[in-house]
Amino acid sequence: MPVPTFDPLSLAAPAALRGLAPYPFPMPGPIINFRGGVPDPVTFPLRDLADAAQRVLRDDPTALQYGYTSAYQRLSDYLISRYARDDGRTLNPDQISINAGAGQAIALACTAFVAPGDAVILEAPTFAWALRIWKMHDAHTTGIPVDGDGLQTDALETKLRQLRSEGRPIKLLYTVPSFHNPTGAVLSAGRRRRLLALAAEYGFLILEDNTYREFRFEGDLPPSLFAQDAGGRVVSIGTFSKIIAPGVRIGWAAGHPDVVRALAAVRGDLGASPWMAGVVADYASSGKLDAHIRDIVPLYHAKRDRIVASLSERCAPYLRWRTPPGGFFIWVTIADGIDPTKLAAAAELEGISYSAGHLYMADASARNTFRLSYSHLSLAEIDRGIAALGRALARCAP
Question: Could you say which DSSP state residue 216 is in?
Answer without folding.
Answer: B
